[in-house]
Structure formats: structure tokens, C-alpha cells
Amino acid sequence: LVFYTTYGKTYDGRDMPLAVVGAGLKDASPASVRATNRLRVHIQGNIHAGEVEGKEAAQVLLREFAMAQHADWLKSMVFIVTPIYNIDGNEKFGQNRGRQNGPINGMGTRAQAQNINLNRDYMKLDAPEGQASAKLWVDYDPQVGFDLHTSNGSNHAYYLTYSPPLNPNTSDAIMTVMKEEWFPFVTKNIKAKHGWDTFYYGNVEGGGRGRGRGAAGDPAAAAGATAPPPPPQTPPAPPGPRAWGTFEHVPRFHNNYVGLRNRFALLSEAYSYATFEDRIKVTNYFLEEALNFASQNIDRLKQATAAADKEAVVGKSLATRAQKKSGGLIEILMGEVQDEKNPVSGATMNRRKDVVRPEQMTDRLWFEPTATEEVPAEFYVPGGAAA
Fold first, then answer.
1. What is the chain's Cα-based Rg?
2. Three-state DSSP class for residue 358
3. Is the pTM above the cut of 0.70?
4. What is the pLDDT along the chain (387 residues), one digit of tens a residue?
């Protein structure tokens, strides 16, 4: 049921492990996987080796497969699992990542051995790991891709946040399912079964207590310093709602890259200040509910990716640049943390407090074009421009 292979070498020469899981497979080869005609699901962990919950959750899932669990999923899906993507960074073990709550003996580094952030390398492919990953996507052609992370940042009340592709050029056939059905299903079921809140990834924009910093992220503001008062003749601006803003839309990030391949991308960010154990649990809950939805909608997901592949883009106006757009108000659940001492290093960690404080914030989760071009039928490259 579980086949082990490798799909590349890291910069330091380590094998990149790959587990392929499917009923009735002959081997782990792309040909064998694609011949099943089942939904192909890629699960990736540890792209940032300080964010190890995905690595653990993926191995929990592999162990469950080996124990003959999830037979219903295996009737309609094949799983391509790369639990530890940034292997060289993982082996630089020991440092602590900010105020993340464990693991108390430390973790790996964000970048790989060339000091490249692999989650910014999906376009240039400067790293051998990125080249191997791109080849895996070509060879196996998964219709669904998970990328499992851990996030610090704003002190919110969610155990996990998530994101679909963010580039405005992503096919509507992909985005409609994710925004209107898939993520709402996951959110509802994790809450119903475990009592834990999840929501779209974001951070507080516009200052104050989101990250424990002032409006501009000024360390002096974090220490309690105050800005000079405005001139007497300038009346202060009326206070307005803060904003909940996402990250960049560009395809150097995994989830945006996968979306522009006309595939479903599900990014998860376990909350850094929940306990290490709870972060692994909620990542598994996220995988479980997302895969439950997939197993109930196999044909629709396959049809959506096929429709996106067939969509003609020649002559279509697509964004070449984009910016975050401001929408209406959405309810964000903010929280609190308390300091806790790491018993090994003595460093200060944060621990999530069981506090939920709803706040209305401006929706800054999506992007809109600022410049567009019509897609040409052909590109002409002069022979003298070969270099």
C-alpha cells in the first residue's frame, strides 16, 4: 500500500524522500499513479524546517494508512507525500523559532543550505530542491496540493489558518469550489468535532497589538514608547476598523504556483503559540476534513481541474500586477498569549490563552489587478536575444 522512493537530491546531497500511497499500485512511479485515474493528492510538509508540524502530521497520516485506516479515501484517491521538503534546513537542528511554543529542544532553519527560502523559489527554481519539486508536479500532476506550515504573527484565537491560491489569474473553476464550499466545510467540521476555530490566514494591518507592535512595526512602539502628538491644528483622524490582510499573491509561493497550474492548493498554518501537540493535532484535523470533502467530491474536483486546463486564454485580459483590495467588514477572532519559559534553553516562549475576542475588521484577503495585458497567441523572441 505504501511505496517509498526519492525524487531528488538536496543542495547538501541528501535524498528527498517520497511516499506514494494507493490501493493496487504496482510501484511508486508516476505512470503507475496516473494509470489509476484516481484523484492525485500531494501532501508536503517542512518547507520551512522551523515549522515541523506538517512533517509530523504527514507521518501520522502515513502511519494510519499503514494501519489500514482511511480505506474510503483510498478507493478514489492516490497520495503523493513529501513529509520533509527542506531536509538540509531540518538537519541544522537546535535553534528556537521566535517565541514558538516548542518543540522545546529546538527545530531547523527557515532556509535550505544555500540560504534560499524554498517557499519563494517556485518561479526562479534556484534551489535543487525546487527543481525536484517542479519535476514532481510535472511527472505526477497532482490535482490537489497541500502545503503544511506553522505561523506566528498576530495574536489571534484560531488554532489554524489557511489559504487557497491568491493570484487573481487563478481559474474561477478552482477558486469557486475552494471559497464557497471546501474551506467552509473544513471550518464547520473542525469546529463541530473538536471545538477549535479556524479561518483564512492573515495578520492585523493598521497597527496596535496585532503582533505586539506599533502601527509601523516599530520596536520602540512594542516597548511601550508613544509617537509624538499631532500638531494642535491637525485634528486626529477618527478611529476606524483594523484590517485582516493576507500575504503576497505572486507565484513564487507554493499555493499561488499550484493555483496557476490549474490545481487546488490548500495552505495550512498551525498557530505557533498553541502547544506543539495541539499544532500537530489541528494540522491532522485540517487534513482529515479537507480529504473528507475531496472524497465526497472526487468527480467535481477532477472536472474542475480539467475545465481549467481546457480554458482558452489567448486574447484574454490577465493581471500582470495586482494589489490587495479592501472589502467589507469580517469578524476576526483575536486572542491573547502569555509568557512561558522553555525548560531546556530558558528562552521565553508564548502560549496561547483560551481567550476569544471577536473584532470587526476590514477584509484584505483578496487581490485585484492594477495592470493587465491581453494574452498573445504567440511570443516572438529575436534570435539575437538568446542570452
1. 22
2. strand
3. yes
4. 999 999 999 999 999 999 999 999 999 999 999 999 999 999 999 999 999 999 999 999 999 999 999 999 999 999 999 999 999 999 998 888 899 999 999 999 999 999 999 999 999 999 999 999 999 999 999 999 999 999 999 999 999 999 999 999 999 999 999 999 999 999 999 999 999 999 999 999 975 434 332 223 333 333 333 444 555 555 555 578 999 999 999 999 999 999 999 999 999 999 999 999 999 999 999 999 999 999 999 999 999 999 999 999 999 999 999 999 999 999 999 999 999 999 999 999 999 999 999 999 999 999 999 999 999 999 999 999 988
